[in-house]
Amino acid sequence: MGGLIDLNVTEEQEEETTPSSGSGSLSPCDSSSSASAFGVSGSSSRSSSSGVCLELWHACAGPLISLPKRGSLVLYFPQGHLEQAPDFSAAIYGLPPHVFCRILDVKLHAETATDEVYAQVSLLPESEDIERKVREGVIDVDGGEEDYEVLKRTNTPHMFCKTLTASDTSTHGGFSVPRRAAEDCFPPLDYTQPRPSQELLARDLHGLEWRFRHIYRGQPRRHLLTTGWSAFVNKKKLVSGDAVLFLRGDDGKLRLGVRRASQIEGASAFSSHYNQNMNHNNFAEVAHAISTNSAFNIYYNPK
């Protein structure tokens, strides 16, 4: 049983029907109205229905992120969608302030260009009768248990997260890994050798394989990723202040993800993927889906 080694706070020196798409605001609902806000914008190491490793996605999203369950009831706020674009108003579409919806599906994704994680949530509007029954406490708003909830309860992967330094992102340098993190997450080295080393193979959120040379050298000796690291930094366009996560599941396979500095600092909750959806035509599709009780998609960016 392992756990997350956060090197930023520890010792670092060591479908048949195609739903419409949109963005908006969503809150879990209970019999007394909405609960906490849910901003919306799209092995033993299990994968989501979209093929993304569940453990890695949640590690990149952060420990405070909570996703709605399939089958649960939520409140969708159209105005939250429209507030992301100027001069938009839900009133011109004749929509109510909120819409009771049931979660049909939650698919986990990652931006191709930035590796930032997001979720595509499929919603189906419910009738006013359902809303009344929810407020009366007749209907349970919770859905079934999700795979990621099972993972949290039964499996804690070996994992570490480190904020990159200027040396880590140098084109002539390598990635320095404190010994405790390397020994917990990476396969064991043979320390009887003069220069212990091994090749590491890790998959990112998109399933791409990355190969790194892991070596233990220097005075004093330290763990470094050398060959292959600069190519990874350049391809991902990583800079000092970004963070890298390595994760080893019970199957022994390595996975890695990134957290951008802008994501860590809590910048805009909407990346380019979501901003591309901010237009009248897109929201008109969502409005039509609501008016016809048809399914539609919204996108949640966990920032």
For this entry, give a set of tags.
single chain; 303 residues; alpha+beta; At1g16640 B3 domain; 2 domains; 8-stranded mixed beta sheet; 16 strands; elongated
Characterize the structure shown.
- The chain has 303 residues and is an alpha+beta fold.
- It has two domains: 15-155 and 266-300, no CATH class; 158-263, DNA-binding pseudobarrel domain (At1g16640 B3 domain, Beta Barrel).
- It has helices spanning 54-61, 78-82, 128-135, 147-154, 179-185, 229-236, 261-264, 272-275, 280-291; strands spanning 4-6, 20-22, 25-30, 33-34, 38-39, 73-77, 99-110, 117-125, 158-163, 175-177, 197-203, 209-217, 222-225, 243-248, 254-259, 296-300.
- The strands form two sheets. An eight-stranded mixed β-sheet has the order 1-9-14-15-11-12-13-10.
- Strand 14 (243-248) and strand 15 (254-259) form a beta hairpin.
- The two termini are 28 Å apart.
- InterPro entries: ARF_plant, B3_DNA-bd, DNA-bd_pseudobarrel_sf.
- Its main location: nucleus.
- One of its GO terms (cellular component) is nucleus.
- It is found in: Nucleus.
- Residues 20-32 have a biased composition (Low complexity).
Largest sheet: 8 strands, mixed
Mean pLDDT across every amino acid position:
77
Low-confidence stretches: 9-18, 30-44, 266-272
* Number of structural domains: 2
The backbone outline, from C-alpha atoms, is elongated
C-alpha Rg (nearest Å): 22 Å
Give the strand line-up of the largest sheet.
Answer: 1-9-14-15-11-12-13-10
How much of the sequence lies in strands comes to 25-35%
Termini separation (Å)?
28 Å
* Range of helix content: 10-25%
Helix/strand class: alpha+beta
